[in-house]
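Table S2 (continued). Query chain:
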Amino acid sequence: MVFMALSLRLLFSEQVEYSILAISAVVFLVALGFLIWQIYRYCTQFPVLQRADGLPAKRGGFQNGKQAMNEVQYEELSHRLSPGTSCTNLGSNLDLASLEDLEEENIHGSLRFSLFYDQLQSKLVVTVLDAQDLAVRDFSHSVDPFVWVRLMWAERENKDQNSMQCLLHEWQTRIVKKSCSPVFGDQFSCTLAEDEVSRVTVRFEVRDFDKYSRHGVLGEARASLNTLKISYPLELRQDLQVPRKDIVGEALLSLKYMPTSQRLEVGVLKIHTVCHHNKTERALYARTIVTCNQSRLRHQRTTQKKRREVTVFNEVMTFVLPDQQIKECSIEVSVYEIQPSRKSSKNLIGHIQVKKNKTGENEHWKQMMQSLRQPVANWHLIYI
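Corresponding output:
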């Protein structure tokens, strides 16, 4: 036994023993440095937060830390920016023509329609008659037109370009296949009080039906009822114009980007819309779509909230994005209205878009990139 122990001891020289000890020390220091780096990442992403009562927020792991951060930071932003702080006061861009890339030379043709208000029945009757000389799509060399009719009700009687409006009703005519001069003959009606007729604008949007993609826009015509005498049927023909967007509300959104974890947080805090008194009980929700280079990456939606003049959500949606994709990316928030009593009653209220591309970037996007790891909230106009 003594001989075996002596042979094992002589198996390693002192030089080899010191080498093994040095390697072990280096491995220990590397592991210690990696542990310190992980602790630093955790502390910078989830700082100790202060609750409303002044006590520090508790850490309960990754999910609890994230939830505490969202609840405190976004609720504070929501209270700080009250619904009375309008987005027009925050310097939002109101250039409606830049919202859609439509070439004016591709818009031509005319639309014929008739309007009539029945004072005895308090009913507005809209009839879409026909269209002439519609533009042909380049890729199909034909057109399958239909007309989308919207009744827009203004918040103020003396409405201007920046006043908010409410979508009262919307209808769609039948589709006429392969015709540049289609005949429709579709009639729509709704109940409308006489004192509200002057606030209504009828918006006719002519579209080209596409079964596999987004419908093409061929132009629009508008009729403001405060300038027309429609106590008798009034027939009009208007040249189609480049579509304009209407302001239907404003939303308080918060953006936060964390480059280390490559996460983008979109917070839907508040939505302010015009509510018409004739509408029954409705609910709102917002759907967020993140796209990159015209490819849709992710989409998420908020929970349903009962619709009020100012609907409070305070909800955050998290998207994981590669660092290189955040440089050319767009965020589109769509607001929908539903009737809780009906299953298939989803109606689009409007859209908001925040983006960064090669040609430019939104002001809110700039603020987000200048304040990394901190939520930045701004009011945005909702268009339809």
